[in-house]
Write a structure and sequence with these properties.
By secondary structure, the protein is α+β, with helices and mostly antiparallel strands. The strands form seven sheets. The protein has an eight-stranded mixed sheet. The chain has a five-stranded mixed sheet with strand order 15-16-17-19-18, covered by helices on one side. The longest helix is centred in the last third of the chain and has 30 residues. The chain is globular and about 90 Å long. The relative contact order is 0.06.
């Protein structure tokens, strides 16, 4: 048997052979508490009974289980020898009957990597917390099963836990005779089953809805977190957004929430943002804010809550057949997150965030060599793991936003309603959704699907303006281009906005036209005769998915008057376009930094401002010419400090500028200011230096050798929590000595003692842009170890190491050559590993092109 990496062909063969009637799973997790480790991994007992049918009696198949050991296996009453049928990842099933019962008694391992049943010990009080995370295929680390999305079944869970604990699962649970027993679920896939157990803090509420036919629906609501976070937990706001979302989806989907209760668990050391387990959604606990954050953070949390809720219909009720059609759940949930955010909550500017932040993720992913169609070719589970990317989420959501415009909002929602009712508790492919949309819209979806779902790459749209003798528009055309590697020119429905400055200097739109762009050049006849524009904004209102380009006049206008653009969405689109120009080496990075220094202080949208901070820092680290880095860093730090001092006291803008300044601080005076703000000898009116901000100020002090190990230990004593420990570990790895770097490298690469969260923190501290020379020796070491790391560690840790430790700060042709040499010498390496290296290599090549562009601008200027 080929091991853990289930292939699509194997899954299809098994689905054609088997159908599952139900699971009964018993877990005994009392072993989670107690000191010390066993000889080997700490384990728990897992007993699974699977009832399933085989349509070819006498045939053979297999069940999935990743476990240190199996105590007993029984098939249809026959005891099988575990040593003969279990190979560490699969259980061989021979001579199947028409109706079968498989019983597996196993010793499964607790996880420290966020995969399977994760065990976390809270350093604050020593309490133990458990939760499961399975997507795409880690439920087999907790119980025996058929681990593929199209073998759905009802599940019954029983969990024996320490007396003082509470246990939650997908269904409603009750404790009987020291065992928690949970109601049987509807038919669901293995990867969305869930168990959460421990002394969690739990808050309850309820949602009620009376439908037009008089039917009444009541949904018990719950929200839980670690006891140590209870004082920070704003559960009322979580429940508010939850109720608003349930109202919105009931209004639009005409299919009542089908999974009974609705618990939301905020859990520690979580690898994802959240996971849509029906009845028990899990979130990373960083969405519980320990200090002051901006409204962008609350908006992001609300978006994630609604994204996961949309999955109850798109993904849980109706599930893709295989991971090829992952977009059928993730693209829809990503779109619906913003759609419902704007339509149901206080975050009415959610489409600005979508245009500025989500699409930036998509544009980057769509220009990598690993880009793929939204409907992807997923050969196996490792492919599936890496396909939770900017294409599947953000590009897919962008395309769905266009689809709504293409077929009409009403036809789109009616198509969704028919899709749910027709395929409830089943599995689907691309054609199933397109069929209902053709029914409701009357449009042929074939050509649209081929262009948008089945081809890769992003188009760029550039305006061409010809003026007549009187200075009016004689012709305005849009030129569409595509990359050579992905030459598809797609149909786009776009709005074109014309902007001029008013008498008071505001840059405002005075004309707008919508047009269908098709082919290499499209004339916008409706705008002929208009006064000459100072700015032409293609894709105004963000109707399509494309990279916006500017004509020379428009670019000159933005260089001088970007801050005068009054519409926040238009401004966000211009910023995004300017960032894409920088990444494409068409705008010198120092030019982008100059725009940030001149105009970011006037940005009203806090989410856009924080994105600009991230882009400016990325420009400095990756895209400016090396000889200009120090100058650029000094300019950004001085600009950030000036904006910090000028910001309204106590405002979220002040907080954003404080964090940005801290990330840039390197000069002695800047570091002294951060030190003074922490110890109270310096003050900026209105700036509350809470515990999270203290850590943000401490990290640059550690990275520049101002705060030593003793200072970091003192801060941990002040904040002896799980969050504090992650901050301390990151700061420890950030210290600027060779010995520190050697120790951090060894802890991540040569040892598996760190949990997933501490691996992430160590890597973040290790890779400091100000320490390029210290990191230089690790470029060669990286290429020597990554294949071994990939083979020996879990896929999550492997991804963290391969992505996080790639020597991108050793930005030279030599590093690029080393990456190419590794790829050439490892053609037989795991495709998922090669993809990660290829992506990092491409980012580095892009950075070098940007540096050349910036250097040319510097020498010319």
């Amino acid at each position: 048997m080929p091991g853990e990496n289930l292939t699509r062909d194997e899954a299809r063969e098994r689905a054609a052979l088997l159908s599952v009637d139900g699971y009964e799973v018993f877990l005994d997790v009392r072993s989670a508490v107690g000191d010390g480790e066993e000889a080997g991994p700490r384990t728990f007992r897992s007993v699974t009974t699977i009832r399933f049918r085989c349509n070819e009696p006498g045939a053979s198949s297999f069940a999935d289980l990743v476990a240190p050991g199996v105590t007993a296996v029984s098939l249809n009453g026959r005891d099988l020898d575990p040593s003969e049928v279990f190979d560490g990842s699969r259980i061989a099933l021979e001579d199947l009957a028409a109706d079968n019962e498989l019983v597996v008694d196993a010793q499964c391992a607790y996880s420290r990597t966020g995969e399977g049943l994760h065990r976390f010990v809270d350093p604050e009080d020593g309490e133990v917390y458990l939760y499961t995370q399975y997507e795409p295929a880690d439920s087999r680390r907790v119980f025996a099963n058929f681990e593929q999305p199209d073998l759905k079944a009802p599940f019954r869970f029983e969990v024996r836990a320490p007396e003082e604990w509470t246990v939650w699962s997908n269904g409603v649970g009750e404790r009987e005779d020291r065992v928690w027993r949970f109601a049987e679920t509807k038919p669901i896939s293995t990867y969305i089953t869930c168990v959460v157990a421990g002394p969690y803090h739990y808050v309850t509420d309820s949602y009620e809805r009376v439908f037009e036919d008089g039917t009444r629906l009541e949904i018990p609501l719950g929200a839980l977190c670690r006891k140590g976070l209870a004082k920070h937990f704003d559960a009322d706001d979580v429940f508010l957004v939850t109720k608003q979302g349930l109202d919105f989806f009931h209004d639009h989907f005409d299919y009542p929430y089908p999974f009974g209760k609705y618990d939301q668990a905020f859990v520690p050391e979580y690898n994802l943002g959240a996971m849509e387990n029906p009845g028990l959604v899990t979130f990373r606990e960083e969405y519980i804010f320990r200090g002051k954050v901006t409204q962008a953070s609350y908006e992001a949390r609300a978006n994630v809550i609604l994204h996961e809720m949309a999955h109850m219909w798109f993904g849980d009720l109706v599930t893709m057949e295989w991971w090829d059609d992952l977009w059928l759940k993730e693209s829809f949930a990503d779109f619906m997150g913003s759609f419902s955010l704007v339509g149901a909550t206080r975050f009415t500017d959610g489409w600005i965030t979508f245009a500025n932040r989500r699409k930036a993720w998509a544009y980057r992913a769509d220009q990598l060599p690993s880009t793929h169609p939204i409907t992807a070719d997923i050969r196996d589970l490792q492919d599936a793991k890496l396909n939770f990317d900017g294409i599947t989420y953000a590009k897919g959501a962008s395309v769905l936003k266009q689809l709504v415009a293409y077929v009409g909002r009403d036809a789109f929602l009616e198509g969704a309603r028919r899709y749910f009712k027709r395929h409830a508790y089943g599995n689907t492919r691309l054609g199933d959704l397109l069929a209902v949309l053709e029914e409701t819209s009357g449009r042929d979806m074939t050509a649209w699907s081929r262009s948008w779902l089945q081809t890769a790459g992003v188009n760029s749209l550039t305006p061409q303006v010809v003026l007549d003798a009187e200075g009016r528009i004689d012709e305005l055309a849009i030129v569409q281009e595509a990359a050579e590697s992905h030459p598809e020119l797609r149909p786009h429905r776009v709005a074109v906005g014309l902007y001029q400055r008013s008498e008071v200097g505001a840059l405002e739109r005075y004309a707008r036209a919508e047009v269908d762009v098709d082919g290499a050049r499209t004339v916008v006849a409706e705008l002929a005769g208009q006064d000459a524009p100072e700015l032409v904004l293609v894709n105004d209102d963000d109707l399509t998915y494309c990279k916006i380009r500017f004509d020379e006049t428009s670019l000159a206008t933005l260089r001088e008057h970007l801050g005068a653009l009054t519409d926040p969405l238009a401004r966000a689109l211009c910023w995004s376009a300017l960032w894409n120009l920088t990444r494409d080496a068409l705008l010198p990075a120092r030019g982008f930094i100059d725009l940030v220094l001149r105009f970011a202080g006037r940005e009203s949208d806090i989410g856009v401002l924080q994105m600009l901070h991230a882009w400016a820092e990325s420009s400095l680290v990756h895209y400016v010419a090396p000889e200009w880095r120090e100058t650029g860093a000094r300019a950004l730090a001085e600009g950030a400090l000036a904006e910090l001092r000028q910001a309204e006291p106590g405002s979220e803008h002040q907080l954003a500028w404080a964090r940005f300044f801290a990330s840039l601080a390197s000069a002695p005076a800047d570091l002294e200011l951060l030190k003074g703000l922490r110890d109270g000898t310096e003050e900026i009116p209105g700036l509350d230096v809470d515990q999270e901000l203290r850590w943000a100020f401490l990290e640059p002090l550690a990275a520049h050798g101002v705060a030593d190990e003793k200072a970091l230990a003192a801060e941990l004593a002040r904040d002896d929590t799980a969050s504090g420990k992650r901050h301390q570990v990151r700061c420890l790895a950030a210290r600027p000595t060779a010995a520190v770097k050697e120790q951090a490298w060894a802890r991540v690469v040569e040892s598996d003692t760190l949990s997933n969260a501490l691996v992430e923190a160590t890597i973040a501290g290790f890779v400091r842009p100000s320490q390029r020379e210290l990191l230089a020796p690790y470029a060669e070491k990286y290429f020597a170890v990554i294949e071994r790391v990939w083979q020996e560690r879990s896929i999550q840790i492997g991804m963290d190491v391969v992505r996080g430790l790639f020597p991108s700060l050793r930005d030279s042709r030599g590093t690029l050559d080393a990456a190419d040499a590794w790829l050439a010498a490892h053609e037989q390496a795991a495709p998922a590993l090669r993809r990660l290296v290829l992506e990092a290599r491409d980012d580095l090549a892009r950075a070098l092109r940007g540096q050349e562009c910036d250097a040319a601008a510097g020498s010319a200027g």
